[in-house]
Amino acid sequence: MNDSDQKLIRYLLGEMSESESTALEQQYFNDPGLFNRLVGVEHELLDNYARGRLAPEIRTRFESHYQSHPERRERLRFAQSLAAGLDQVTVVDRPRAPAESWWQRWRGVLFGPAFAWGFAAVCLILLIAGLWLVIEARRLHQEFTRHESERNQQEQHQRDLEKQLADERARADQLAAEVERLKTEPSPAPGPTPQSSSVIASLILTISDVRGGATGPPATLVIASEAEKVRIQLNLKDGVQDNEYRSYTIVVQSADGRQIFERAGLRFRSGRGGNLTAIAPASAFAKGDYILTLKGVSASGTVEDVSRSLFRVQRK
């Protein structure tokens, strides 16, 4: 018995690890020759057990594995019945006269009733054995299909966990970037009084989705003379969800196309009906019309224009 048959015996006796069993099942599923060899080795084991030919060590391992499962016990009983039937098939020699020729002796054997009954019994036993092999092949195929389904489910679960982990890491990176941006954002310069340094003009725009512009007429930004900063806020319309871009950039241009302000690394503060804000110096805005462009940065780093809004500045 070669090493390959020893490996098949370990599999049939349940002595392989789960990973080894799965690998072997994948191999014999793709290799009909190996599958047929596996069936033959099991048949040989069952027959040797039924006839008492197994070594004591292998017989103990065999009984422990096959007696513990109903289907294996059934195959063992079948093998014992088959061996008993084969042992009963005997060819009875007739008495031969000394003067008979060799042809007469062989003709008596070939066409005698003992040979006919023995041949019929052998054919019946071979038919039963072939049926049993077909049933065993179907059973092994069903077991492999079940193992394959369980392995696919485990792999899908592993992929889901890895995706969740990647999403959590991306969210943590976004939070870290936001913290760094807030750290580097310039603090308001001290003014003559606390009241004058805290004056901020606000511009609030509502967009229907991340690919739409502001609704209604152009908004108006009123900047008082004592204001030092402009707070720009973009609101998502209620019921709209932002989940397409990794981050956003706000760019403000004058009517003649001159860029006066840009802020990158922004995120909507909530997924549904949320908003994002940016602080710009009030001195950058003069009276007139302006265009605010919202740009989206995808996961691959591609930058796209996703919204444009018009607004007008008035100074007091």
Describe it for me?
This protein is α/β, with parallel strands linked by helices and about 325 residues long. It has two domains: about 5-160, no CATH class; about 195-315, Immunoglobulin-like (Sandwich). It is built from eight helices and eight strands. It has a five-stranded mixed beta sheet with strand order 2-8-7-4-5. A three-stranded mixed beta sheet has the order 1-3-6, with no helix packed on it. β4 (about 245-255) and β5 (about 260-265) form a beta hairpin. It is rod-shaped, with a radius of gyration of 43 Å. Mean pLDDT is about 80; it is low at about 90-95 and about 190-195.
List the topology elements:
Elements (H helix, E strand, L loop, with lengths): L2 H10 L5 H13 L1 H19 L5 H11 L3 H18 L14 H10 L1 H72 L9 H4 L2 E8 L11 E5 L5 E8 L10 E8 L4 E8 L8 E7 L6 E10 L5 E13 L1
Parallel strand pairs: 1-3, 2-8
Antiparallel strand pairs: 3-6, 4-5, 4-7, 7-8
Helix pairs in contact: 1-3, 2-3, 2-7, 3-5
Q: Report the helical percentage.
A: 40-55%
| Average pLDDT score | 80
Note the run of SSEs as H and E. Answer: HHHHHHHHEEEEEEEE
How many whole angstroms does the radius of gyration measure?
43 Å
Helix/strand/pairing category? alpha/beta
Count of discrete domains: 2
Share in β-strands? 15-25%
Largest sheet: 5 strands, mixed
How many distinct helices? 8
Q: In total, how many beta strands? A: 8
Catalogue the unreliable spans: 90-97, 191-196
Q: How far do the termini sit from each other?
A: 101 Å
- Overall body shape: rod-shaped
Strand arrangement, major sheet: 2-8-7-4-5
